[in-house]
Amino acid sequence: xxxxxxxxxxxxxxxxxxxxxxxxxxxxxxxxxxxxxxxxxxxxxxxxxxxxxxxxxxxxxxxxxxxxxxxxxxxxxxxxxxxxxxxxxxxxxxxxxxxxxxxxxxxxxxxxxxxxxxxxxxxxxxxxxxxxxxxxxxxxxxxxxxxxxxxxxxxxxxxxxxxxxxxxxxxxxxxxxxxxxxxxxxxxxxxxxxxxxxxxxxxxxxxxxxxxxxxxxxxxxxxxxxxxxxxxxxxxxxxxxxxxxxxxxxxxxxxxxxxxxxxxxxxxxxxxxxxxxxxxxxxxxxxxxxxxxxxxxxxxxxxxxxxxxxxxxxxxxxxxxxxxxxxxxxxxxxxxxxxxxxxxxxxxxxxxxxxxxxxxxxxxxxxxxxxxxxxxxxxxxxxxxxxxxxxxxxxxxxxxxx
Length: 402
Description:
By secondary structure, this protein is of the alpha/beta class. It has helices at residues 34-44, 88-100, 114-125, 145-160, 170-180, 195-206, 209-216, 237-250, 265-272, 290-296, 311-318, 330-335, 350-361, 364-378, 383-395, and strands at 2-5, 23-27, 49-53, 80-82, 105-109, 130-134, 164-167, 223-228, 254-259, 279-283, 299-302, 323-326, 342-345. It contains 15 helices and 13 strands.
């Protein structure tokens, strides 16, 4: 185990949490949305936080083949550790080290890699209070046949093994309850983003939208459809491209801003070739520049048919954009109120998506109202809410996740 940086947390001696030994979070690797949350906790929470990563930082993304450019993460902004090796002996040593810290709670983010499950077992044997963070959902899990039966039996037992659950949303909580056949104290540990950062940065970028449209040779009243995704079969950028092709025939001022890259690059470029001047593809961009593209857009589309959550939905809503999401996007199920802050469409249904986009293009007042509602919705999925839930869990307070 290698210590990357030690950043002691500030303590508030007047807080009841002063008695706490602190929080330890174990997860596979650093994420672009959790790391800023951990930075906020490290700088303001009245209890110590330690985050242990079981895989190397800055590892290549399996779908993209390269490491994402998360240039917004400040090294050493919270107490983070990276594990070297994943042997059973290492799991036992790590469990004993964690036990020596006398934490009030250890949250393990899933049971993959299997090392994390073994670590949870050792922690439980050592008498440490453990919680499970989960993003699995019933709609994204195959539970039919004998394999499904085995999954239910095995996974259910694993879920019952933890003292508390920390689902990312209501769908994840339903999954935990269904497979375990029981219940545990549950505290939402959402996949949230820095709402304020996205809102403020995108607002600044929006002031430059007119010039950007002019630089692209696009009309000042362009209806800009935004997609930010990996160009993979799982995230399905081609459905968005096909929907845009249909939309543009009925709405000549429509334009497509398609951010991303991936294995489907050739297919995507071939699909947009007939109307290439109407599409802008900046490639896979650094995280710090994402607000720029949200700021230039009128509406955001997430067409992925198999996405248990999808934090880009949070990002877009924080930037005040209505969101159109495929049925397979978990965040769409939980954050979108159809007709209020966005719309949903069947997986792969380009014609339905095109029709929904046309409706919004024809109703600018409705579009703006939905954007305002989107920002209000995502405010309830903020870092502040996540921190409050973690504090409740540390204190063993009654949970507020129903």
